[in-house]
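Dear colleague,

Thank you for sharing your sequence with our group. We've completed the structure prediction you requested, and as agreed, I am returning the results in plain text so they can be pasted directly into your records. Please verify that the sequence below matches your submission; if there's any discrepancy, let me know and we will rerun it promptly.
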Amino acid sequence: MAALAPDPLILAGEGWADYGLVDSGHGRKLERYGPYRFVRPEPQALWSPRLSDWAAHGEFVPGSDEDGGGRWRFDKPVPSEGWELGWGDVRFTAQCTPFRHLGFFPDMAPVWSWMGEQLAARGTGEAATLNLFGYTGVGTLALSDHGPVTHVDASKKSVAQARANAALSVMDQRPIRWIVDDAAKFAAREVRRGKRYDGIILDPPKFGRGPEGEVWRLEEHLPGLVADCRRLLDADSRFLFLTVYAVRMSSLAIAGLLAEVFGDMAGTVEHGDLAVREEGEGGRLLPTAIFARWRR
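Please find the predicted structure tokens below.
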């Protein structure tokens, strides 16, 4: 029976050559993405900035709507078609999107590393993994170091960008299935097909729509999706990693869901915060999301 670890963890990411959290405070954060710097809203940065100079190429100015909206304002030229960045061997295009982010989620870097460690421990080099809500594929390409990956996203544009990132990384010949589909429907079909995976990562939105207008609401649909994911894992599987953003929910809540669903499996359910550490001496940890994970 999977044991629920009572104490929360902090899974903290550090900056790397092409990304860093420069400073944060007063509800905003200053980040570097390669040669460019950007300011974005960050409600959890309740403290004061450490730096007085926040000179940046652009800033995302949020709209008055709590659920989103806003626009980019640029003070210096930024390539509208995007620019190339890297994380390890993975290359990808960063770009200022209408959704305030830049085409990937840098706080996921420690998750990509952790998943690689779990799969490497299996020792076969042929681990099959599933990336639900896979977006532009940086995590998928990281997982492909360890075996075949199935990448699923409802956005045709995101999957096209993921495939472009695979070509940019010279990984387009790896055994990756690129699927444009509703994540919940796809997982249910995989269960009916009798499929199994060594690891699953899911990064669901608070609200979304599938390619045929399917409606996704996190609190309503997450339990069923997690239950199907459990059916796609077996006694030889290594992990399930769930991240949740922008919801009024505790990591203990989603860990409780995993503990129930994985009650018949050996292993451990852990939970906590994803965070990014500011660069420089005394850099603070900025929380970005909550997570829960089952591991063998």
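Summary note from our side: Residues 3-14+98-295 form a domain with the Rossmann fold fold (CATH 3.40.50.150).

Kind regards,
the structure core
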